[in-house]
Design brief:
Strand content: 25-35%
Largest sheet: 5 strands, mixed
Number of strands: 10
Radius of gyration: 27 Å
Number of helices: 2
Structural class: alpha+beta
Distance between the termini: 91 Å
Helix content: 25-40%
Shape: elongated
Length: 189
């Protein structure tokens, strides 16, 4: 009986040591993860963004890159496609963005009043529009079609009605429309 009691005592001691080791390992992992999160957050707050572009939201419609005549899709002489848009309560301007399929597109957008968000459904395109700052997002669509573009950042009453769309057309049709010059959009289509 004393042998059995010693075995039971030894088993209990082994279990206690094992449990203590796992508890220590768990605490070490939690402390390490907390330190990593804190250091990453500290690094992120102390390092400036690589490139920040600003604009005056009170003068968007009067002068500069986001005047009404510059909004929409533009094809540069080198073939680069750039879309300029503004989010404002409770609409996007232009409300319909026209882009070619299988082509790199740069979206440059800002907000005229409060924080808005652009989310192109069915894609990984998701960016915030902050007054005074220009957001730049790179896009490429592999198929033609239409994508809804709701504001995904609550911007006040009426937010639920803030929708736009992105219409992706084939390259030939886009080139034919771009030949006429000016900014392209699919508003009214």
């Amino acid at each position: 009986m004393s042998v059995q009691a010693d075995n039971h005592h030894d088993s209990a001691a082994i279990a206690v040591r094992t449990e203590r080791r796992w508890a220590i390992i768990s605490v070490i992992i939690i402390v390490a993860m907390t330190l990593l999160a804190a250091l990453a957050g500290l690094h992120r707050t102390t390092m400036p963004q690589a490139r920040v572009e600003t604009t005056d939201p009170s003068r968007l419609h009067l002068a500069g890159e986001f005047v009404e005549s510059n909004l929409g899709t533009e094809v540069a002489a080198d073939g680069a496609v750039t879309v300029r848009a503004i989010g404002q309560q409770y609409s996007f301007t232009p409300a319909c963005i026209l882009v070619p399929v299988d082509t790199p597109v740069t979206l440059r957008a800002t907000s005229a009043d409060v924080v808005h968000g652009i989310l192109v459904q069915g894609t990984n395109i998701n960016t915030m529009l902050v007054p005074g700052y220009i957001s730049e997002q790179y896009m490429r669509f592999s198929a033609t079609g239409e994508h809804l573009m709701p504001c995904q950042e609550f911007c006040s009453f009426g937010h639920e009605g803030m929708w736009g769309k992105v219409k992706v057309i084939d390259k030939a049709a886009f080139a034919a429309r771009a030949k006429a010059g000016g900014r392209l959009s699919c508003v009214g289509e």
